Amino acid sequence: MSFIQYPYGDTLPQPGTAMALVPGVRWIRMPLPYALNHINLWLIEDGAEGWCAVDTGMDMGDVKQHWQTLTAHYPLTRQIVTHYHPDHLGLAAWLLEQTGAPLAMTQAEYLTAQAFANEIGNYSPQATGELFRRHGLSAERLATLAQRGNAYRRGVPQIPVTYTILREGEQVRIGAHHWRVITGNGHCPEHAALYCAALGVLIGGDMMLPSISTNVAVFAPNPDEDSLSDFLASIRRFDELPADTLALPSHGRPFRGIHARVAALEQHHADRCADLVAACRTQPHTAASLLPILFQRDITDPHQTFFAMSEAIAHLNYLEQRGEVRRNEEDGVLRYRA
Ligand SMILES: [Zn+2]
């Protein structure tokens, strides 16, 4: 399949309802308070006792109320969370308290959640600010970012204190089927996607999105990390799955055409890298001064600035590793030349 198809067209699940996709798999859509205004969650039939939730949503608006309506029809047996981000992990502790459904996630994601929530080491807003300052973000934009405080802890006010560890390659039995854990990185340290060969379904989380490109991130504890290489290597693993696999993404609509999507994402990042190298050939640039070149849209709100800076640094680290740009530090600010 060389293009992307949306087998359910424009049909979306109504708020507080779950839409049947393939036998034993349901689609839920919850609101988000960002430019990206929704997240998809999934229910997998887990035998006679109930349903396994994949991801949980954020504590905002009617999300808890929607969950209460849903769990009246779909009692939860357990929760699998793909990664630590607030829209995925946010309500896990609340759902555990409400339903008793225990949490499963990879260890690196769980520990990263704890580190950001508790500001351990450089997993703190101050360290992130310092990283962005070193990469040329203006004092004004740094101040706006700092005003957010610990946005992570607001999004994930509580984290379950026990959980089951999911591991790469593990076959998780959920009801009638096995789902294979496919870990990936670059977006986050150990994202878990789930693949069911019997159903031909991939729950891709944030690693396989149909229309927007996944944020590729560098954070203050690993400032020189080549996250873009990690991300590209991770998505290439989806090429090994059958071409007609139904992909269930965290944002956007269920689709077929993962191979076409992997190719498009590779091209997207190759094009962005070429743009950055061209810009760094004409004059030295910081990550911050490259933002208008990397993103041809408005990214001035603090939430988007955070992801955009992180992504710009990831691209520069990737290019530096390949010898395509060189860094020079002057007055505590990193500038790059091609
Ligand atoms: Zn994410």
Description:
- This protein has 338 residues and is of the alpha/beta class.
- It has a single domain, classed as Ribonuclease Z/Hydroxyacylglutathione hydrolase-like (Metallo-beta-lactamase, Chain A).
- Helix content is 35%, strand content 22%.
- The protein is built from 11 helices and 15 strands.
- The chain has helices at residues 63-73, 86-89, 92-99, 107-118, 125-134, 139-147, 151-155, 227-236, 258-282, 291-294, 302-321; strands spanning 19-20, 25-31, 38-46, 50-54, 76-80, 103-106, 164-166, 171-174, 177-184, 191-196, 201-205, 246-249, 255-256, 326-330, 333-337.
- The chain has a 7-stranded mixed sheet. Strands 8-9-10-11-12-13 form a 6-stranded mixed sheet.
- Strand 10 and strand 11 form a beta hairpin.
- Helix 5 runs antiparallel to helix 6 and helix 8 (227-236) runs antiparallel to helix 9.
- The longest helix is centred in the C-terminal third of the chain and has 25 residues, at 258-282.
- The radius of gyration is 20 Å and the shape is globular.
- The mean pLDDT is 96.
- It binds zinc ion (ZN).
- Zinc ion (ZN) binds next to loops.
A few lines on this structure:
The protein has 338 residues and is an alpha/beta fold. The chain has eleven helices and 15 strands. The strands form three sheets. The chain has a seven-stranded mixed beta sheet with strand order 1-2-3-4-5-6-7. Strands 8-9-10-11-12-13 form a six-stranded mixed beta sheet.
Shape: globular
The structural class is alpha/beta
Instruction: State the major sheet.
Output: 7 strands, mixed
The CATH class, by name, is Alpha Beta
